[in-house]
Amino acid sequence: VQLVESGGGLVQPGGSLRLSCAASGFTFRNYDMSWHRQTPGKERELVASISTAGLSINYVDSVKGRFTISRDNSKNTVYLQMNSLKPEDTAVYYCKASRYIYDYWGQGTQVNVSS
After folding, report:
1. Are strands 9-11 and 109-113 parallel, antiparallel or unpaired?
2. Which residues in 81-111 are b (16+ Cβ under 10 Å) and which e?
3. Are the C-beta atoms of residues 69 and 77 closer than 8 Å to each other?
4. CA distance 65 to 110
5. Residue 107 β-bridge partners
6. Which of 1, 17, 73, 92 has the most CB atoms within 10 Å of its CB?
7. Would you write out the chain's pLDDT as a tens digit for each of its 115 residues?
């Protein structure tokens, strides 16, 4: 099982980034997917989640209207489009695959929002 995030980097406030998470080693379409983020000294926070077919999507209040989660089951990939980025969005972003008692995590990608 492997989840590989990409697309992080340094961006100015107000800018955009698109994170990708490529999955392999399991049946991607059967797993709910989510993005989480973590900063030093804080607990990991759920940012957005999407169900297997994309019919159920949820966001933490702080990113509603700015972030969009999506998935392409034909490419085994989940995305997080992040617009209007703020300094407080700075964190390591992780994707997670969930099904029943099974959770798989990626290694994370760093996002820095700074002028």
Report:
1. parallel
2. ebeebeeebbbbbbbbbeeeeeebebebbeb
3. no
4. 22
5. none
6. 17
7. 999 999 999 999 999 999 999 999 999 999 999 999 999 999 999 999 999 999 999 999 999 999 999 999 999 999 999 999 999 999 999 999 999 999 999 999 999 999 9
